[in-house]
């Protein structure tokens, strides 16, 4: 999991602003994922991408957008349409070869709306 | 879609005792069941996983059991130590979706 990096570690946003969270991996993994974690809750899937230039919505995609222009990178933009964005955001990646792929997580970005 | 329920939400045990966390899932097509450990403020880390073609898997003090008929799987930690204190998440996935659905987590506290 050391091959997945996220930046920044902490991010503060004013209401009405869009912010972009970075996720990079050097594991040569095909699939990448974004999860949101709220206190006392599990991880909820926002978006995922199985190949470059393709991505699918997860369970809570509203108010978020992503791009996958490079295999190594999967940035997440939290838009002003996301009404409650304060949360811990985790990026993950896996080899896209079977349903039993292990997902490895990055260190996370903690986003706070001021 | 898949739904995963995890119990209990909190669990306290004395050091040296065993801990058991249980999960149930809804989709009978699910065939991969990983367990993650997350320490406060850190990333989830895979500690053990099981595929649907086996019923039990062990790794030192950690074991996972799977009952596909009943659609539930459990994490067993023996001889618990203070460093086992963390939040544990179960998850399930099935081949066509290639997504993990997570349980809500169990806060395990090992009391010295």
Write the layout of secondary structure elements.
The complex is a heterodimer of chains A (114) and B (112).
Chain A: E1 4-7, E2 10-13, E3 19-25, E4 31-37, E5 43-51, E6 54-57, E7 64-66, E8 76-78, E9 87-94, E10 104-105, E11 109-113
Parallel strand pairs in A: 2-11
Antiparallel strand pairs in A: 1-3, 3-8, 4-5, 4-9, 5-6, 7-8, 9-10, 9-11
Chain B: E1 4-7, E2 10-14, E3 19-25, E4 32-38, E5 45-51, E6 56-59, E7 62-67, E8 72-77, E9 86-92, E10 101-102, E11 106-111
Parallel strand pairs in B: 2-11
Antiparallel strand pairs in B: 1-3, 3-8, 4-5, 4-9, 6-7, 7-8, 9-10, 9-11
Quick recap of the structure?
The complex is a heterodimer of chains A (114) and B (112). By secondary structure, chain A is mainly beta.
Describe the structure.
- The complex is a heterodimer of chains A (114) and B (112).
- With 114 residues, chain A is an all-beta fold.
- Chain A is 0% helix and 49% strand.
- Chain A contains no helices and eleven strands.
- In chain A, strands 2, 4, 5, 6, 9, 10 and 11 form a seven-stranded mixed beta sheet that branches. In chain A, strands 1-3-8-7 form a four-stranded antiparallel beta sheet, with no helix packed on it.
- Chain A is globular.
- By secondary structure, chain B is mostly beta strands.
- Chain B is 0% helix and 54% strand.
- Chain B contains no helices and eleven strands.
- In chain B, β4 and β5 form a beta hairpin.
- The radius of gyration of chain B is 13 Å and the shape is globular.
- The model of chain B has no long low-confidence stretch (mean pLDDT 93).
- The A-B interface holds A 1, 31, 33, 40-45, 48, 50, 58-59, 90, 96, 98-108 and B 1, 4, 6, 9, 31-32, 34, 36, 42-46, 49, 51, 89, 93-105.
């Amino acid at each position: 999991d050391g091959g997945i990096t996220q930046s920044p570690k902490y991010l503060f946003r004013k209401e009405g602003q869009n912010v972009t969270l970075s996720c990079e991996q050097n594991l040569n993994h095909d699939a990448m994922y974004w999860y949101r974690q709220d206190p006392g809750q599990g991880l909820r899937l926002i978006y995922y991408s199985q190949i470059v230039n393709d991505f699918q919505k997860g369970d809570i995609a509203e108010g978020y957008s992503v791009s996958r222009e490079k295999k190594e990178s999967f940035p997440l933009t939290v838009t002003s349409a996301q009404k409650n964005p304060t949360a811990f955001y985790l990026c993950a990646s896996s080899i896209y070869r079977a349903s039993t792929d292990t997902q490895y997580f990055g260190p996370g970005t903690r986003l706070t709306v001021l | 879609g898949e739904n995963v329920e995890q119990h209990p939400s909190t669990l306290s045990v004395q050091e040296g005792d065993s801990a058991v966390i249980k999960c149930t899932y809804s989709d009978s097509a699910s065939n991969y069941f990983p367990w993650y450990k997350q320490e406060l403020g850190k990333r989830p880390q895979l500690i053990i996983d099981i595929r649907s073609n086996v019923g039990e898997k062990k790794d030192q003090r950690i074991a996972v059991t799977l009952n596909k008929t009943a659609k539930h799987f459990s994490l067993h930690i023996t001889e618990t130590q203070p460093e086992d204190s963390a939040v544990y998440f179960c998850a399930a996935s099935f081949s066509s979706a290639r997504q993990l659905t997570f349980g809500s987590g169990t806060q395990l506290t090992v009391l010295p």
